[in-house]
Amino acid sequence: MRRTRVFGFSFLVVLPLLAGCASVIPDSGSRPATTAPAPSQPTTAPRPYQPRPSESGGVAAKPIPATPRAPFPAAAVPTDATTAAASGILAGPDFATLGVTADQAATALAAFRISCPSVQRRADVSGLTQGADWAESCNAAKNWSDSAAAAFFTRYFGTVQIGAGTAFVTGYYEPEIAGSRDRRPGYDIPIYRRPADLVDVDLGLFSDELKDKKIRGRVEGSNLVQYYDRAAIESGALDGRGLEIAYAADAAEFFFLQVQGSGRLRLPDGGIMRIGYDTQNGRGYVGIGKLLLDRGELQRGQASMQGILDYLRADPVRGAAVMNENPSWVFFREITGPGPLGAMGLPVTGRASVAADPKYVPLGAPVFLSLDRAEPNGLWIAQDTGGAIKGANRFDSFWGAGEDARAIAGGMAARGSALLLLPRASIARLIPAR
């Protein structure tokens, strides 16, 4: 969804660098990327923020500890590796030995069926699969009984470890906030569609050295300049252009909906309007949780989504200034069909879909996670991507909508190991000795 998405909440403390005259597009998919310039140092030492008992940003779910399966010993990953195939592939155990529950397997099979039309057409940039490899399992999935889902994955898939196999998993969800289709008292925070003057430029058309690099900006006279940042948009840069598709009631809640990349608006009449990621202004993403931690305004245990919401609401003026330090702005469109949609253009499934880096995981592939938190352990389907979800064995778990999803996703940060499930035709080609 961070195509409708953004990734999990670890992005709040992620701090890579991004620079450019017209911003390099942080991520080509649905969710904003977690890129940021180094934070400026405060001129005075701030006092740590202490939330009041009455403030309510929700409560993160208490982690359920688990003992992860250790990755298999593997050769060092080449320093120039940029794909799964180049990172090293080890044969894993039979799926039947992994201990996936019947319910997990059934939910994953239902999600896998959704991916099948796309997975057979997509070019797999990971170097692991070819479109034809998926034909056998996708044909079988059409009529396979959910009650025997574990047998399906055992029969049609083998497991592999990519590189060191060491996994890190965050969480995201589909937020629901108060909103209105029209502006009215209490609903005055505009939610914009993509502006016509927002231009995408593929730099690879101009230089082979810039292949796969894009920038996004606007034309001013004869120059391409950066698009308006969050502060400019909040100050009215887009007023009067008829771009509003709805209005939110709470600025901090809308800020986090932008981070997630999609969500639901709970309308005054009780109806629901679903909105999804359309594009982003091209500005680098700044994780405000990282800024507040570095400045000492939040303590380490407060930098969850819930803790940051409390901080923003405690002083709305101060909160608005902090949010404006993230120059990224997400534009939305209304979603009227099934959703939310992932990077494959297909609906993602709560507690079954993960975001992954397509250079290391074929989108549509099943993934087995064994982590130090019990909640995300088991079988998932890679159906999304995210700006912060980069590299081998890096995943963002999607938990659906509602308070439970919000509580789990808001504090998810789990470590352990990961295995990919690949069609047996792929396994035979990649690991002939097997």
UniProtKB/TrEMBL annotation:
Region feature (Disordered): 28-65
GO molecular function: hydrolase activity, hydrolyzing O-glycosyl compounds; peptidoglycan lytic transglycosylase activity
Biased composition (Low complexity): 30-47
Transmembrane regions: none
Keywords from the UniProt entry: Cell wall biogenesis/degradation, Lyase, Signal
Signal peptide: 1-19
Keyword flag Cell wall biogenesis/degradation: yes
SMART domains: MltA (SM00925)
GO CC entries: outer membrane
BP-aspect Gene Ontology terms: cell wall organization; peptidoglycan catabolic process; peptidoglycan turnover
Lytic transglycosylase MltA domain span: 176-333
Substrates-to-products reaction catalysed: Exolytic cleavage of the (1->4)-beta-glycosidic linkage between N-acetylmuramic acid (MurNAc) and N-acetylglucosamine (GlcNAc) residues in peptidoglycan, from either the reducing or the non-reducing ends of the peptidoglycan chains, with concomitant formation of a 1,6-anhydrobond in the MurNAc residue
Protein's UniProt keywords contain Lyase: yes
E.C. designation(s): 4.2.2.n1
Pfam name, any one: 3D
Highest taxon, organism lineage: Bacteria
PANTHER family assigned to the protein according to its UniProt record, in alphabetical order: MEMBRANE-BOUND LYTIC MUREIN TRANSGLYCOSYLASE A
Protein name: peptidoglycan lytic exotransglycosylase
Organism (species): Sphingopyxis bauzanensis
